[in-house]
């Protein structure tokens, strides 16, 4: 039952936002009493912590699956972006990350410190892969570019209220990031990926 509550809560939090969803909403959606939820979670914050931890695990599992498919570095980044778009496709109004930072800053900080390590490693691997494939310039300062991209992405998510707006700006950031690193061959691949989205 505990796992079912976490799964349902995660789904509602992503769809409607962390602040908007109440314990009553979760109980109503599951056709159980609020008392049943409180049997497993002493308050909403604990449930949010468990839910964000579940979502975090799911995100990284899907990312690993995408990376295992061995796309080229640029294609890989676009596939990962697509995954995030699908995850948040039901949420057009409020960005869950923005809400989490605003209303539950402590939980947000805990996730952030863990997420920074995971994301920087992911970005680093992608850049090194792109250099090996001749899609990114070999003279890049990898650590600086990792920091640039990470700063861009986190800034967008923390400060953009609307999820659809955040996704639109993220695509611009991905194009900006890729163009800054790309070789001629890389620009061709980037144009190919952008064309797929625009068609």
Explain this structure to me?
- The protein has 199 residues and is mostly helical.
- It contains 10 helices and no strands.
- It has helices at 2-16, 23-30, 34-40, 44-68, 73-87, 96-103, 105-132, 142-159, 163-181, 184-198.
- It is elongated, with a radius of gyration of 19 Å.
- The N and C termini lie far apart (44 Å).
- 24% of the residues are buried.
- The mean pLDDT is 89.
- Give Rg in angstroms: 19 Å
Q: What structural class is derived from the secondary structure elements?
A: mainly alpha
Secondary structure tally, helices: 10
Shape: elongated
Along the chain, the helix and strand elements come as HHHHHHHHHH
Straight-line N-to-C gap: 44 Å
Helix content: over 70%
Mean pLDDT: 89
The percent range for strand residues is under 5%
Describe this structure in a few short sentences.
By secondary structure, the protein is mainly alpha-helical.
Observed structural traits:
single chain, 199 residues, mainly alpha, 10 helices, 79% helix, TetR/AcrR family transcriptional regulator
What order do the helices and strands come in, and which of them pair?
Layout: H1 2-16, H2 23-30, H3 34-40, H4 44-68, H5 73-87, H6 96-103, H7 105-132, H8 142-159, H9 163-181, H10 184-198
Helix pairs in contact: 1-4, 4-5, 5-7, 5-9, 6-7, 7-8, 8-9, 9-10
């Amino acid at each position: 039952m505990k796992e079912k509550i976490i799964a349902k809560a995660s789904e509602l939090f992503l769809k409607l936002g962390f602040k908007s969803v109440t314990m009553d909403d979760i109980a109503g959606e599951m056709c159980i009493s609020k008392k049943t939820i409180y049997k497993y979670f002493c308050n909403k914050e604990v449930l949010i912590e468990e839910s964000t931890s579940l979502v975090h695990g799911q995100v990284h599992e899907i990312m690993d699956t995408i990376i295992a498919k061995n796309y080229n570095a640029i294609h890989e980044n676009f596939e990962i972006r697509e995954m995030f778009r699908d995850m948040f496709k039901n949420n057009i109004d409020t960005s869950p990350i923005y809400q989490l930072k605003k209303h539950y800053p402590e939980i947000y900080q805990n996730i952030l410190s863990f997420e920074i390590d995971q994301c920087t490693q992911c970005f680093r691997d992608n850049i090194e892969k792109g250099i090996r494939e001749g899609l990114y310039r070999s003279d890049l300062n990898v650590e600086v570019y990792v920091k640039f991209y990470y700063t861009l992405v986190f800034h967008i998510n923390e400060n953009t209220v609307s999820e659809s707006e955040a996704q639109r700006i993220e695509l611009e950031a991905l194009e900006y990031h890729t163009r800054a690193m790309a070789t001629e061959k890389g620009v061709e691949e980037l144009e190919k990926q952008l064309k797929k989205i625009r068609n």
